[in-house]
């Protein structure tokens, strides 16, 4: 279905089947066949083939508007994922004991926040055993432990 949407949009942008086929590197008859298949499935023509340059029908306008909305959503999704990847946005939940949270993490978290202001930090305080359980259940993203038994449980990560 994605290819068919690209075909419709390419025809709309190019203003003709032949130009769109050339831009898509397919034959014009193959492109026409794909469009007729779509038009048959919706029961309406998308293009007014009697006009030059090619014009959209009312159904075609709705179809192209839908394609543009999908393209905008796709672009928005890609931008959001890129922002997470580049650490511009996101959440980080850190778990630690009272001592770690009170004496070690404040300075580190302050520096992290200064470097990555779009990342929302959350701090959880609990026992090492509970933090290990929370980490394995993915309720927190990061914790600290010197206990080899706990560390051994996470070597596969």
Give a written overview of the molecule.
By secondary structure, the chain is of the alpha/beta class. The chain folds into two domains: 2-83, Winged helix-like DNA-binding domain superfamily/Winged helix DNA-binding domain (Arc Repressor Mutant, subunit A); 87-152, D-Maltodextrin-Binding Protein, domain 2 (3-Layer(aba) Sandwich). It is 61% helix and 13% strand. The protein has seven helices and five strands, in the order H-H-H-E-E-H-E-H-E-H-E-H. It has helices spanning 2-14, 17-24, 28-42, 58-85, 98-115, 128-136, 148-152; strands at residues 47-48, 55-56, 90-96, 119-125, 142-143. The strands form two sheets. It has a three-stranded parallel sheet, sandwiched between helices. Strands 1-2 form a two-stranded antiparallel ribbon. Strand 3 (90-96), helix 5 and strand 4 (119-125) form a beta-alpha-beta unit. Helix 1 crosses helix 2 and helix 2 crosses helix 3 (28-42). The chain is elongated. It starts with a helix and ends in a 5-residue tail after the last helix. The model has no long low-confidence stretch (mean pLDDT 91).
Which labels suit this protein?
two-stranded antiparallel ribbon; 61% helix; 13% strand; alpha/beta; three-stranded parallel sheet; D-Maltodextrin-Binding Protein, domain 2; 2 domains; 157 residues
């Amino acid at each position: 279905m994605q290819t068919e949407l690209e075909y419709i949009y390419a025809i709309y942008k190019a203003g003709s089947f032949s130009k769109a086929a050339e831009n898509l590197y397919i034959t014009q008859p193959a492109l026409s066949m794909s469009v007729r298949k779509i038009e048959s499935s919706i029961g309406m023509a998308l293009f007014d083939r009697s006009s030059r340059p090619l014009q959209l029908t009312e159904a075609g306008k709705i179809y192209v508007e839908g394609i543009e909305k999908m393209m905008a959503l796709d672009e928005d999704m890609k931008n959001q994922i890129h922002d997470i990847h580049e650490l511009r946005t996101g959440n980080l939940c850190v778990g630690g004991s009272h001592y770690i949270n009170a004496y070690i993490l404040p300075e580190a978290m302050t520096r992290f926040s200064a470097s990555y202001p779009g990342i929302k930090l959350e701090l959880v305080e609990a026992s090492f055993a509970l933090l290990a359980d929370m980490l394995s259940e993915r309720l927190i993203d990061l914790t600290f432990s010197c206990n080899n038994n706990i560390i051994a449980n996470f070597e596969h990560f």
